[in-house]
Amino acid sequence: MGTTFDELLAEGAAQPTEGWDFSWFAGRATEERPPWGYSRLLGERMARASAGLDLQTGGGEVLAGIPAPPPVLAATEGWAPNIATARETLAPLGAEVHELPADAPLPFPDATFDLVTARHPTYVPWPEVARALAPGGTYLAQHVGGPSAAELTAFMMGSCPPADPADPTFGAEGARAAAEAAGLTVTELRTAVCRVEFFDVAAVVHYLRKVIWMVPDFDVERYRERLAAMHELILADGGWSMNHHRFLLEARRP
């Protein structure tokens, strides 16, 4: 593990960014989890489903944790570097992984699935979700709230666009309205604010390279001055913290 500023920058920049495995952050950062336990809920629902679909599965790491897959299991992912990882990770579950942009029509017949899930989707094609769900089927997802990690964006870029609570993906009430407009009945909507703390600047670098929408033009050299300021704060205070905003949405097709 590096100790100097330049060593830490190089270490964070060298880590691969494919998939959603955050195990590298152990000892370097901590994240408080929402109280509802999405992974547990996902496992319980998939075990009861006859046909399940996981949207924007990343490298398949979260879905791979379910204890028992349904007889039919499919997943979508739009970022090319994740496709091979997801197919390899989900092969033991018998899942078929479709390479598909987040905003593309779903390549499935009407009423195919009794469960559609997603963890931190960047976009939800609500009419397509409603179409692909069988009558009585359920959409269950943990979403990223609009102001999530705004402190980091503001620190690096100098400002952060205000969150829009009506945004259909990144605002809880906007997501509720979009789901209902697509014909779904929202049965649960819960929100949580979770503290995140970084203990070295390498973790900040890797996070910004992995979660690319936080600082869209992030580059280590371009942001070297701000990273140096972050490094000094971490040395002085023992860490630097921000908040993740999450919401759990469950909706049913009548």
TrEMBL record:
<dbReference type="GO" id="GO:0032259">
    <property type="term" value="P:methylation"/>
</dbReference>
<keyword id="KW-0489">Methyltransferase</keyword>
<dbReference type="GO" id="GO:0008168">
    <property type="term" value="F:methyltransferase activity"/>
</dbReference>
<protein>
    <submittedName>
        <fullName>Class I SAM-dependent methyltransferase</fullName>
        <ecNumber>2.1.1.-</ecNumber>
    </submittedName>
</protein>
<dbReference type="InterPro" id="IPR052939">
    <property type="entry name" value="23S_rRNA_MeTrnsfrase_RlmA"/>
</dbReference>
<keyword id="KW-0808">Transferase</keyword>
<dbReference type="InterPro" id="IPR029063">
    <property type="entry name" value="SAM-dependent_MTases_sf"/>
</dbReference>
